[in-house]
Amino acid sequence: AQKITQTQPGMFVQEKEAVTLDCTYDTSDPSYGLFWYKQPSSGEMIFLIYQGSYDQQNATEGRYSLNFQKARKSANLVISASQLGDSAMYFCAMREVMDSNYQLIWGAGTKLIIKP
Amino acid sequence: DVKVTQSSRYLVKRTGEKVFLECVQDMDHENMFWYRQDPGLGLRLIYFSYDVKMKEKGDIPEGYSVSREKKERFSLILESASTNQTSMYLCASSFLGQAGSTEAFFGQGTRLTVV
Fold it and tell me: Which of A79, A63, A76 is nearest to A18 (CA)?
């Protein structure tokens, strides 16, 4: 079974609109971390935001916020006021504490295209 | 700034060749990883290393080997390249630290084409 599911292969959004990228996860580990990365066409993976399973508040980093719904096992990325430079692939990933080697488990990604 | 550097952005190799992909990081990270990325499949872990001379198989180690002789350098080796190894290869590193909070830093990727 997939541990990280990103159900949106691609999205088109008008510039300046907010966008939500979906991510659901599956784990039996009570302690885990969730990450979002951005991959522009240049290929480099850029870390955006992190949410710990015990964090009480949703993580925020500038225009990025993580809508963490633990009971639903959902960790959606919200980008406010989208910009043309936000066009990229976005990946959700999870790390489980039970995994002693701390590997990241990755979703298949969502291609986001911002329209001017 | 953390710097993870992969030796090549683009490589074209012939079937059967031995291929070396090099990765160097300058932040004294314990963990280093090699992934391949294919459309619709996300990132799949090939091998990782948590210390010098230590290595662990990831999800898809077949056809690959790795070498970590120094902490800062992690090499991926394709012993005999095949066309199904045409892919984007990404190297990453991270501190060993607490599992939940330690993000991985990535290199710029190597797009390998095997003909």
Answer: A79
Name the residue facing A108 among B31, B40, B107 (closest C-beta). B40
Of A33, A35, A43, the CB nearest to B88: A43
Q: How many CB atoms lie within 10 A of CB A70?
A: 11
Flag whether residue B89 sits within 8 Å of chain A, measured between CB atoms: no
Asked if residue A114 lies in contact with residue A82, where contact means CB atoms within 8 angstroms, the answer is: yes
Closest CA relative to residue B4, chosen from A47, A87, A104: A47
- Report the alpha-carbon distance of residue B42 to residue B110 in Å, rounded: 15
The pLDDT assigned to B99 comes to 47
Cβ of A33 within 8 Å of Cβ of B100? The answer is: yes
- The pLDDT averaged over each successive group of 10 residues in chain A (116 residues) is 84 94 92 92 90 92 95 96 96 80 82 93
DSSP codes of every residue in B13-26: E-TT--EEEEEEES
Give, in order, the Cα–Cα distances in Å from B100 to each of A47, A99, A100: 14, 11, 11
Rounded to a whole number, what is the distance in Å from the CA of B88 to chain A's nearest CA?
9
Give the DSSP letter of residue A98.
Answer: T
Q: Which of residues 68-87 of B touch A (CB under 8 A)?
A: none
Say what the pLDDT of residue B101 is.
57
B54-82 pLDDT, tens per residue? 888 888 999 999 999 999 999 999 999 99
